[in-house]
Amino acid sequence: MSENKKNNDSSSIWHPIQGPLGAGLTLGALVFMGSLLGILTRMENHLASFWLANAIMAGVLLRIPASSTLFGWLVATLGFLSADLITGSYPLKAGLLTLANLVGVAAIRAAYLRLTRGLIGIHQPLAVLHLACACACGAAASGMVGGLINPVLFDDGVLIGYLFWFVTEFANYIGILPVLLTAPALPDLCRRVVRYMTTPAYRANLLPVLLLMVSCVGAQLIGGPGAIAFPVPALLWCAVSYSTFATATLTLLTSAWMLVSYSNSLPFNAEAMISLRLGVFLIVPGPIMLSLLMQSNNSLLATLKHMAARDGLTGVSNRLDFMERARQQLRSGGSPVGVMMIDLDHFKAINDTHGHAAGDAVLVSVASRIQHCLRTGDLLGRLGGEEFAILIDGHSAEELAAIAERIRLTVVQAAVRIPEGVALPVTMSIGVAVAESDGRLSIEQLLAASDAALYRAKNEGRNRVVVTSLLPDWSADAEFGQGAVR
User: Fold this and answer.
1) Residue 191: helix, strand or coil by DSSP?
2) Which of 74, 351, 375, 386 is 20 to 30 Å from 191 at the Cα level?
3) Strands of 375-445, DSSP E
4) What are the CA-CA distances from residue 246 to residues 143, 253, 283, 452 (Å)?
5) CA distances (Å), 115 to each of 43, 132, 349, in order?
6) Do residues 148 and 256 lie in contact, with contact meaning Cβ atoms separated by under 8 Å?
7) Is 344 helix (H, G, I), strand (E, B) or coil?
8) Domain 310-481 is in which class?
9) What is the pLDDT along the chain (486 residues), one digit of tens a residue?
């Protein structure tokens, strides 16, 4: 997919982090901060409503392989323990909770790498299923430890402890990990944000987010068991409007806000909390899968559009694309404007003597050489056979004549090596028409004028440039080049 084809490079999120030391310390710091934030949502004598640390640790271990060392695991363990101890937990409780956390993280990392065969990231809808299965494995591992320690820590049964721990961990993993696994590099993210904010239509693109905010407020005001579904339509709109990373982030923020607000406003009930947490975070996969489908669809459409607009042999614009883009450029481009018609001299003889493979090699080489003589905004197209056309604006007639001559010399001065290994000399004739870009002349008229100049070049011996101008202050025709083909 391009968006993040292989995100297991350690530089894919935090470029400055290099080596086990920096990666391990970063992992420990993030686990510590995530634990502190989670503890703030912890209800008295119960698990936290929203626990960030485990998913953060799993995401960092997957995205930054240098952190997955003994040192990294030790520093992360210290992060878990220190966050619990400084917030008032006694050592035994801190140790048992940390054990459950580490077992779950280890399980989800192993399951994810096995399911995805080491490919890190979310590139297609099937990847969401792989992630969900890995999250279930990590949650089950934590649940087994949590069920065993539940009677010790919370004076409750093993089964209810397992269920509560499993649902809580699964909800946290499935909500947080998509954000970490789709996160672009920080410099790239900053560039995207700046580019997005400077786009004239960015305010209209904020409408899905505004609707999401309104739906969240409405859910809070209306309340009731169905309120958790209020943001779903807005999240689906976000999915078709934004990238997978942005969709995953908005889905996580929405789910976390709803979970924390509902957990703190309702009396504690184990069954109700299990249902709430599972219900809230089962919303997550839907928008992400829709976003992935939209990204895949957009990528496919862009590929098909590119293929439809490109000449299959040379890679330059085909006739239809050239004509359409030329019309657009004539409406908005600078003045004066020049159109060049290029024809390879005696090209039929190349095909007849050396075969069509040699002719194809000549066309590919010539198109590449022409492209290197042009600016980024100049338009080059293959109109058919050995004929090429160029549209250039913002140059005087003298400058266009010089550009055409440079193109001719670039092709003439270096022979083309064909598949047989023979270095084949190639020459070309070029007709150039120059006119004011005032909306009165169409691309068809300019091509006709440049084609007439091309036929003059052919009739006068080939391997030359003939320029004809429709400008009022440069009416004389000009001719450049070396004589006929030898």
Assistant:
1) helix
2) 375
3) 379-384, 387-393, 416-417, 423-424, 428-435
4) 30, 11, 16, 55
5) 35, 11, 58
6) no
7) strand
8) alpha beta
9) 344 444 444 344 444 456 788 889 999 999 999 999 988 877 665 667 778 899 999 999 999 989 999 999 999 999 999 999 998 889 999 999 999 999 999 999 999 999 998 888 888 888 899 999 999 999 999 999 999 998 988 888 899 889 888 988 998 899 899 999 998 877 777 777 777 767 666 666 888 999 999 998 888 888 777 788 889 999 999 999 888 999 999 999 998 888 777 766 555 566 677 777 777 777 888 899 999 888 888 888 888 888 889 999 999 999 999 999 999 888 876 678 999 999 999 999 999 999 999 999 999 999 999 999 999 889 999 999 999 999 998 888 899 999 999 999 999 999 998 887 888 999 999 999 998 876 677 899 999 999 999 999 999 999 999 999 876 544 445 555 554 332
Predicted structure pTM score: 0.69
Residue 171: name the closest of 102, 289, 252 by CA. 252
- Structure token digits, residue 295: 């990204």
Amino acid in the structure at residue 446: L
Give residue for tokens 């299990």.
Answer: 274
Query: CA 305 to CA 67: how far, in whole Å?
Result: 42
